[in-house]
Amino acid sequence: MAANDYYQQKPLPDPTYPPTGYSGAGQPASSSYSTYSGPPPSYTSQPPPKANQPSPSPFDTPFDDHVYPASTHQSPYPSQNQLNDIPLQPQGQGRHSPNKDPEMQDHVYEAPKRKKSRKARVRMGELGMLGSSDKKIPWVVYLFTVIQVAVFVGELVKNGTATGSPIQTSPFNPMIGPSPYILINMGARFVPCMHNVKGIQDSDITIHWPCPDTKTLDPNAPSQKCTLSDLCGFGGVPEPAYNSSGTMDQKPEPNQWFRFIVPMFLHAGLIHIGFNLLLQLTLGRDMEKSIGSIRFFLVYISAGIFGFVMGGNFAATGIASTGASGSLFGVIALTLLDLLYSWKDRVSPVKDLLLIFLDIAISFVLGLLPGLDNFSHIGGFLMGLALGICLLHSPNSLRRRIGEDTTYAQVNNGMLSQGTAPPFFKNPVGFFKGRKPLWWAWWFIRAGALVLVFVVFILLLNNFYVYHKTCSWCKYLSCLPVNNWCETGNLQITKNQSA
């Protein structure tokens, strides 16, 4: 019987037991049962209830979903034998029975499936921050991946149009990609396009620059006689004076500041973009799904910009730097913080730490090769650490001590979780109310990390545009002192390049 049939039953007779006027197993003796048209009720040896006791509702009985037919008048109090004879599932109405009546099976319920509980220990390759099990769609990773692939295809097309080959062949580009001059013309970080450089603006000889469509490194080739403005593109830059009055204070000076941002979407070749996307679509995707797209976007962009700013200050002035390596080093820094934050919750934290250090060491050693900018890696990693302290949740042990065992999504189904402070933007006063001293101490550390990285960023920008200071030993962080590798990438202005 379906549940809605409860409300369509015929009225039961007078609950007085035995019914007045009943004369035995035959028909009723009085007309008081004229409204009752069903078969005569059957009775058992069960003692009758007390007089005037109301009939129990089928919703109050242990078998409320197995109601008695309204067309019969049976005792609402079945005997013990009747109770034992009631099957949990009617015979012939099982799951595999051919005779399935929906109304006869509405009392059969399946136990709800329980969600799998989070494992007590975090295995290798998993994120261990409290709340990292909340899966979100990694929109930033997917969007940036599509843009980077599209831009790389554009690089190959432009190189093929300009030189006749989609990749540089003379000399061969080991990354299997376009020439560095095409990359410079498309927005790679190239210091001469961004500010005055010693040896260029104060040069008293005319400097000829490679054209974007150059096919050879011969300085006397026609494709090597372009202006700096031709090479930089994007509307050009002010040309140096190239006379005895040229100074480092020449105004206006080149100022293509966007070269701190655009290179994140450029890559030097197929191998370069392949390794970056492999890391981005695995480690980066998992990190964004755990911390959310807004936090991930801030770390990704900030780490990439900071890495290019640091490289602009200390790397060789003639290197055309590209790639999302700085951003991905920021993601690696977040992974390291996640490990430290959940150290006691992991199965083998030491192995996880060694694996992260191995990845960092391999990338750092590769950054020592000629023509590569290791400062982007270093800067991205440092920015990732600083912003990770500011944006990630507190360490697991600290959150448990202050009673803040919540996920990144503080609002669940529109309601705040129990013991969770309201969001800052909705209730600034309530956000700080009742906080414990440990919470305040950790937030002072967070604020200090944010202030420190902001001050360093301003100082580096000021040094890049105003002071142009460098250090004699910094170059060894991005090169090995063998075969003049540390001189590779530095602009060598000679008379062969003059008119």
UniProtKB/TrEMBL annotation:
Start-end of Pro residues biased regions: 38-59
Biased composition (Low complexity): 26-37
Keyword Transmembrane helix in record: yes
Keywords carried by this UniProt record: Hydrolase, Membrane, Protease, Serine protease, Transmembrane, Transmembrane helix
GO cellular component, as recorded: membrane
Physiological role: Serine protease involved in intramembrane proteolysis.
Protein name: Rhomboid-type serine protease
